[in-house]
Amino acid sequence: MPNNTIGNRKGAETVAETFHGWMRSFIDGLLCLYMILVLVGLPFYFQEGYTYIATRKTNFFSKNCMTLLKVLVPVLVIYGVTSAILYYRKNYTWKPLLKGKELRTYIRSKVRLMDLFAIWYSVMVILSYLFTNYKEEASWGAGGWYMGFKTQMILLSCYFLITWFWKPRKSFFFIGLGASWVVFLLGYLNRFSIYPIDMPLSSPGFISTIGNINWYCGYVTTIFFAGVAFLWQGGGKKWWQKALLMVYVFVGYATLVTQGSAGGIATLGVALLVMFCLSPGDGQRMFWFWVNALLLSAACLFTMAFDRMNPEKMNFRDSYMDIMISGKLPYIMAGVSLAFLVLTGFLVKKGIYKKKPFQILAVLAGAAVSCAVAAVVAGIVVNTLHPGSLGTLSENPFFTFTDSWGSNRGATWKAGVQCFQEQNPGHKLVGVGPDAMAAYIYTDGSPELVEMLKRNFGESRLTNVHNEWLTILVDMGILGLAGFAGLIVSAVVTFLRKRSLNLIACACGLSVLAYTVNNIFSFEQIMNVTTMFLLLGMGRAFLRKQEEPAGE
Q1: Helix (H, G, I), strand (E, B), or coil: what is residue 207?
Q2: pTM value surpassing 0.85
Q3: For residues 97-107, average pLDDT
Q4: What angle do CA 375, 380, 384 make, to 5 degrees?
Q5: How far apart, in Å, are the Cα atoms of 24 and each of 31, 59, 166, 372?
Q6: Buried (b) or exposed (e) across 363-373, using 16+ Cβ within 10 A?
Q7: Are 377 and 295 in contact (CB under 8 A)?
């Protein structure tokens, strides 16, 4: 009789464990569907061309996510219940196996700083929504953007779920690169008035299957640098894999230098500088950095040649684009890149690569760029306070901070600062509500603020200030910004520091950095922020798998 009891108990445990495994696999499958939705569905979804393309993409995302959640939530509940039952059957007690120091050590081994910041930010999104005076608008967010409470919670939930329940697969990383390559190619062709897909309402201000130039730039900078970082790390074991990566990077650089947003060029500069400064310690990594640099030069030279052969085809130009695809700069970049590529390749092949000279070069490059940026910022401040103090440079509008500075970034940034200043201490901490800045401005904003915006933007509503962190400061306060900034910074540092541990995590880190740099001059929208949170979860999942012992 006792033997039968033991056998029945083991049989019940085996059935429970099998069912538990099925639930885990089902959750993983739902998360795979979500990742396909973000990586493939969103980029290519549109109706009637560019007609309300932003709103329609957002509605497509939100409706499908709500459908997935309706299935996912009960499955998670069942999974949690079966986990508790298995725990009890295994230990015959509800008492924790670990206590005190052992429990704290275990938690530290499983939970990273970025997870804690993600929890912090989640709590602040909830508090900001609970204390907002504009719950109707804060629920989904301002019309056309929809970055409100529900969207934020979907993104954060998916970060945690991908981190802990998704089985890391490299195939999804490459699916994302493959889909984005098609988007990049379409965007590049569009710049030369070639439209493989008929898109009603086509104009130079809209591009590829994404839409507005700023939206397109946000998407490109977020996903493209994952491919750049993977190539930089020497990703791809076989020659044809490296060749495909180089084709991807070439097309990405070509569309990035012609997309039409200055934020993309600034992001390109920062990403290249970061890669260069992290390269000297490894000869192979330095070699592939120069491959990247040469591909950028080749993309600029190819675009220059194509433009000269078809001078009437390019439908959009600005000064930043002209710098990259005309004049002497592309030739200089190509010459320098080729020379260092050959030199580094020779040193690595002969086994005489020394990191010290390249470290010195990296320090000098970083110092030079930092000093240049500081000098430009100081010049803008001085010339704005004391007009004419920079001589002939004072005649350049860039060195005078006015409402029109940076395509009206001056006005939007001033509006953001003024919105924050007008709040009471409580709302300074938790904000006016997720994506509720417009509701505040046009309901309770000061007459001076509203008048300034009407003077610069007419009857158009300002829903964000074209600076992500300043917008979050207004929408979710000091505490919300601290959580979001902590999540981003800790993720970038963690992923890039562990670049030798996992190539895909490193790629995700560079992408999150690129997203953040671009959003100094731009904003959250459904194409870039969904991709960014997915990459956060993906990078974290790959590191978790790499760090945990087999079988856990």
Answers
A1: strand
A2: yes
A3: 67
A4: 145
A5: 11, 29, 9, 52
A6: eeeeeebeeee
A7: no
